[in-house]
Amino acid sequence: MTGAFVIAVDGPAASGKGTIATRLGEAYGLPVLDTGLLYRAVGVLAKRAGEDLDDETACAAAAVTLTADQLGDPALRTREAGELASRVAVHPRVRDALLDFQRTFAGQEAGAILDGRDIGTVIWPQAPAKLYVTATPEVRAERRWKQLQGQGEAVTYEDILADIRRRDARDGGRGAAPMRPAEDAVLLDTSEMTIEQAADAARRIVEAARARWDAS
Ligand code: CDP
Ligand code: CDP
């Protein structure tokens, strides 16, 4: 075995990857980074500064100023922040500006779990455990709709389904680090799973990866 035990959890919006990453973090005592928060924070910062989100230089400048203490802002959890995030995430220079932070987190001696879109393909391709969490767009829209209602956002299910489809197309279609499963990722379709079932399935995948890693 070489390096730290890193678990990469990738997948599209509202597939349940954050929930799975948190559960795995509890199960294995590993620190968890929700990398989507970085892009959400850059989008919100750029918007607040009145920048054009299609302006790569302006968005990269916002990304460079980002600090970890800005990631707890509840404004990052809104529907709008998700949309802003996927718009700034298409810019290669924004992605480059966020690389060091993510790789430093992944490289810590204790090991780590990161969830996002490109953890297994770009950020930490050497991760010994990689999951790609999916669910149908309709199931994901239902989950996100309920989640946002719980946060007090008044939106319709149809609006959220349209958001999800638009974000899937943008995240999967961009040139820089497009959303896609790593070749060695294990696909986990949670469409018909409860949170408990998804967390159990994820643990089994990680146990198998851990056994291979211990033996190597
Ligand atoms: O929670 P949800 O899946 O809706 O979104 P998120 O993980 O917070 O990510 C928000 C947006 O950031 C995504 O739609 C991607 O455009 C971008 N993102 C990315 O490009 N790469 C990552 N590693 C994480 C997020
Ligand atoms: O991180 P990501 O955007 O992929 O999704 P999440 O934040 O983990 O999950 C989105 C919502 O779906 C949360 O409110 C979860 O509690 C819920 N969820 C669910 O209902 N069933 C699952 N199997 C997984 C998540």
Keywords:
216 residues; alpha/beta; Rossmann fold; 5 strands; 11% strand; binds cytidine-5'-diphosphate; P-loop_NTPase; kinase; EC 2.7.4.25
Give a concise summary.
By secondary structure, the protein is α/β, with parallel strands linked by helices.
Order of helices and strands: EHEHHHHEHEHHEH
Beta-strand proportion: 5-15%
Shape: globular
Number of helices: 9
- In total, the number of domains comes to 1
Mean pLDDT: 96
Would you identify the regions where 5 or more consecutive residues have pLDDT less than 50?
A: none
Strand order of the largest sheet: 2-3-1-4-5
What does this 3D model show about the protein?
Helices cover 54% and strands 11% of the residues. It has 216 residues and is an alpha/beta fold. The chain has a single domain (5-215), classed as Rossmann fold. Helix 2 packs across helix 3, helix 2 packs across helix 4 and helix 3 runs parallel beside helix 5 (92-106). The longest helix is centred in the last third of the chain and has 21 residues, at 195-215. It is globular, with a radius of gyration of 17 Å. The chain starts with 5 loop residues before the first strand and ends with a helix. Bound molecules: cytidine-5'-diphosphate (2 copies).
